[in-house]
Amino acid sequence: MAAIEMRNIVKRYGDGFQAVDNVSLDIADGEFIILVGPSGCGKSTLLRMIVGLEDITSGDMIIGGTRVNKKAPRDRNLAMVFQNYALYPHLTVFENIAFPLRLKKTPDAEVTEQVNRAAELLQLTEHLDRRPAHLSGGQRQRVAMGRAIVRQADAFLFDEPLSNLDAKLRGQMRTEISRMQRRLGTTTVYVTHDQTEAMTLGDRIAVLRKGVLQQVGSARQLYEEP
Ligand code: ADP
Ligand code: ADP
Questions:
Q1: Which UniProt keywords apply (predicted)?
Q2: Which of 17, 43, 191 is the pocket-test mutation for ligand 1 (most atoms within 8 Å of CB)?
Q3: Which atom of ligand 2 is closest in space to residue 82's alpha carbon?
Q4: DSSP character string of 163-222
Q5: Cα→Cα distances 99→94, 140, 162, 164, 221, Å
Q6: Which helix (H) or strand (E) holds 18?
Q7: In whole angstroms, what is the distance from residue 198 CA to residue 46 CA?
């Protein structure tokens, strides 16, 4: 069974603009898929419809076998990582990562265990007592990923997570994101307009253009073969 199935998904905004045009795509359980395409092609709109932050005009969104068209984000059990990190400045790294667990009133011992495990995976163990203002951009990005990890979500959704970082850091973070995804085996949808990211991350690439899904395949299939 696919983790995420999109069936003839259409998005027309209030002004009549059709941002997503009849997209059908199956994302396998544990798969790392990249949505790539030029700015304005509808990537972010599609991702937001998966998470539930945007209504679907027509078509079906099926997550874990259940149609979720009308389900609120909190009922979809997905974890979105935004490009602006959305960290709480007054909380330590530990509490920033722990935040979703605190909301769920998870017992302290389990919070500590889960936060430590995520911190180890993301090489944040030495920074747990610091506040976001004292971290580098890459470290902040990792804290945001730590928060997604402790949600124990069915899928991770990344919306251009590295676009605020410099080129060197982007390279490092690409490596870390693939390592994290492989270790956890969590289904991941990753939006980018950057071809290098598309080619080096992920199992498959889905190419969007003007709201239409143009091609789906591995980097080799899409970029290397004539
Ligand atoms: P991408 O993520 O690929 O850059 P988006 O999904 O953000 O593209 O946007 C796709 C298209 O939909 C763009 O042309 C954008 O201007 C339009 N769009 C996005 N949000 C809205 C909105 N709230 N109302 C009207 N048009 C929108
Ligand atoms: P509250 O509204 O209680 O302050 P949040 O806004 O943090 O809590 O989250 C409300 C619900 O929305 C959460 O239960 C969660 O399932 C969902 N949610 C919040 N942030 C994300 C995210 N980054 N990715 C996916 N779902 C989220």
A1: ATP-binding, Cell membrane, Membrane, Nucleotide-binding, Sugar transport, Translocase, Transport
A2: 17
A3: 23
A4: TTS-HHHHHHHHHHHHHHHHHH--EEEEEES-HHHHHHS-SEEEEEETTEEEEEE-HIII
A5: 9, 15, 22, 23, 41
A6: strand 18-28
A7: 17
The band of 72, judged by pLDDT with boundaries at 50, 70 and 90, is very high
This prediction's pTM:
0.85
User: ipTM beyond 0.90?
Assistant: no
Which pLDDT tens digit goes with each residue over 102-111? 999 999 999 9
- Rounded CA-CA distance 9/149 in Å is 28
CA 205 to chain centre: 14
Between the CA of residue 102 and those of 109, 133, 156, what are the distances in Å?
12, 22, 20
Report whether 87 contacts 143 (CB < 8 A): yes
Provide CB contacts within 8 A for 127, sequence distance 6+.
93, 119, 135, 139
Tokens of 212: 């239409």
Q: What is the CA angle 112-114-119, rounded to 5?
A: 90
| Protein residue with least CA distance to atom 3, ligand 2 | 103
The span from the CA of 127 to the CA of 149, in Å, is 17
Q: How far is the CA of 159 from the centre of ligand 2 (A)?
A: 16
**Contact (CB, 8 A) for 1 and 65:** yes
